[in-house]
Amino acid sequence: MESNMSEQFVEIDNFGLELLENVDMMMEPQHSHEEVNSQEVLILIEKVILEIVTSLSKDEAPVLVLPNRSSWANVSFDNAVGLQMTSGSSVTTVRSNCSSSVTKFGHILKVLSTIYKLVQSNVYATKRDIYYNDTQLFGSQRTVDSIVDDISCMLKVPRRRLHVLATSKGFISGDLCYLEEDSTKVDCHSNSTATPVSSNVGGIRNIVSSAKFVLIVEKDATFQKLLDYDFCTKLCPCIMITGKGVPDVNSRLMVRKLWDTLHIPIFALVDADPYGIEIMCIYKYGSVAMSFEAHSLTVPSVMWLGLLPSDLHRLRVPEDALIPLTQRDQNKLTSLLKRPYLACQPAWQREMEMMQRSKVKAEIQSLASIAPDFLSRVYLPNKLRYGGWI
């Protein structure tokens, strides 16, 4: 049985060996701020407060200077790292004497104070905890989420070093066991229910797996369907993970953790539409907003398994299962084709240009129009068996 499986998936094995040969080149050294200890975090926060006190002592209005996390002009592309924030990036000034930014100034100080107490007492809190600590002040959860990321970027310290965790929305399943930071054993082998992605991926240790590959699944519905089919044991040992659409930071950290530990092929299964492609690019190359943490979030070895625009023609997916591209889709596709990382992905470019010409898109579920179980019984096994990734 084992020999038969090895013969069936020789393409994956060969690709895995190729990755191992290049792993040193793909493993960029982590930024030194990854190793920042608690005492150093406290000193960094104290420096910010000292600057504010100094300004006040001079009868000047204090200001906070934040790197701009929303501009493409602030990021550079490196094939081994993805999108990373440049050192000379443009900044946003948050003034305490300006009506348009004084509220944000107050929010940042409040969250800095909370973080200082958390780090000092070696206690962790979620972003949700921080919001509910003063809902009237913050007004919305989104405000807290943005402020925490701004502080992380300003101090050049990963969020988990600030003792702030985010509630995970992703799920994982398959040939995987590990220990949480508090020594809780997690077994992801169950074929009926998935395991929520950890809220503290950085604390995970003792990862044990004999998986041949990791499959990133864009949508929860597709993930559940593959789970119901028992895909991870029927085909060959593997790990499936979903961020349920646009991935949260924990799902991205988990994919990176699996790559750093296992060095096995990682494939993406997304809709054949501009937004599915963008989601895959976030896992592989990162995003502008989180480019300051690129070294711990991106996995440039991710390969596009499906659904490819060329698959729609090759498999003769029925026309009534195809969806015309909207103007918004076309604009997104044009924008994606201008991204710096597409220059080193000619095969991806060709697929996207094919979508542009055909003016149609398709969801993964469109394969059910060929046969109800076509995805799990035919499409994925053949793709994996014959090396149908790009």
UniProtKB/TrEMBL annotation:
InterPro entries: Meiotic_Spo11 (IPR013048), Spo11/TopoVI_A (IPR002815), Spo11/TopoVI_A_N (IPR013049), Spo11/TopoVI_A_sf (IPR036078), TOPRIM_Topo6A/Spo11 (IPR034136), WH-like_DNA-bd_sf (IPR036388). It is found in: Nucleus. GO terms for biological process: meiotic DNA double-strand break formation; meiotic DNA double-strand break processing; reciprocal meiotic recombination. Pfam families: TOP6A-Spo11_Toprim, TP6A_N. GO terms for cellular component: nuclear chromosome. Residues 213-384 form the Topoisomerase 6 subunit A/Spo11 TOPRIM domain. Keywords: DNA-binding, Isomerase, Magnesium, Metal-binding, Nucleotide-binding, Nucleus, Topoisomerase. The active site is at Y132 (o-(5'-phospho-dna)-tyrosine intermediate). Its cofactor is Mg(2+). It is an enzyme of class 5 (isomerase). Residues 104-164 form the Spo11/DNA topoisomerase VI subunit A N-terminal domain. GO terms for molecular function: ATP binding; DNA binding; DNA topoisomerase type II (double strand cut, ATP-hydrolyzing) activity; metal ion binding. The keyword Isomerase applies. It catalyses: ATP-dependent breakage, passage and rejoining of double-stranded DNA. Its EC number is 5.6.2.2. PANTHER family: MEIOTIC RECOMBINATION PROTEIN SPO11. Belongs to the TOP6A family. This is DNA topoisomerase (ATP-hydrolyzing). The lineage of its organism: Eukaryota, Metazoa, Chordata, Craniata, Vertebrata. The gene is SPO11.
